[in-house]
Amino acid sequence: MRVRILGGEEREIEVEPGRVQDLLERMHLNRETVVVKVNGRICPEGEQLSEGDEVLIIPIVTGG
After folding, report:
1. Is 2 helix (H, G, I), strand (E, B) or coil?
2. Could you give the domains of the chain?
3. CB 5 within 8 A of CB 12
C-alpha cells in the first residue's frame, strides 16, 4: 500500500500494511522522539495505516 509522508521532503512510499509503529521502525525512527499525525490527527503508535493516508512526522525538539 502507498502512504504519503509530509514535512521536509514530501514523498510517497510503498509500505506493508501495518501500524504507525511499523512505519517508524522501517524509517529507523524512535517513537519517543517524534509526534505522528495521520490525516491531520495525532495518533498512537498502534494506529493502523490505510492506503492513501497522509502521515506527518514531527521531530520533538528539546533543549534549554
Report:
1. strand
2. 2-59 (3.10.20.30)
3. yes
- Could you say which DSSP state residue 35 is in? E
Task: Output phi, psi for 20, to 5 deg.
Answer: -55, -45
Q: Count Cβ atoms below 10 Å from residue 51 Cβ, excluding itself.
A: 9
36, three cell numbers: 505522528
Grid cell in block for residue 58: 514531527
For 8-48, how does the pLDDT look when each residue is reduced to its tens digit (9 = 90+)?
778 898 888 899 999 999 889 998 999 999 999 999 999 99
Rounded Cα distance, 31 and 44, in Å: 10
Q: How far, in Å, CA of 17 to CA of 2, rounded? A: 9
Q: How far is CA 63 from the centre of its chain?
A: 23
